[in-house]
UniProtKB/TrEMBL annotation:
This is Flavin-containing amine oxidasedehydrogenase. GO terms for molecular function: oxidoreductase activity. Pfam families: NAD_binding_8. The lineage of its organism: Eukaryota, Metazoa, Spiralia, Gnathifera, Rotifera. Coiled coil: none annotated.
């Protein structure tokens, strides 16, 4: 068991919206958590994407 004053190691699998949010939140408590964020893809963001549309807002 970890002692009270030791940091806990946390590995987050997946850099989608939830994984990034979780990693950011835990990183704000670096005195308590040592965080690693792993992503199999080339970029973070999960299935989130953006699409360009024309000036009138129509596809």
């Amino acid at each position: 068991m970890a002692k009270e004053n030791q940091t806990k190691k946390v590995c987050i699998i997946g850099a989608g919206a939830a994984g990034c949010a979780c990693a950011w939140l835990l990183s704000q408590h670096s005195d308590k958590y040592q965080v690693e964020l792993w992503e199999k893809g080339h970029v973070a963001g999960g299935v989130a994407s953006s699409h360009k549309i024309d000036q009138n807002g129509l596809d």
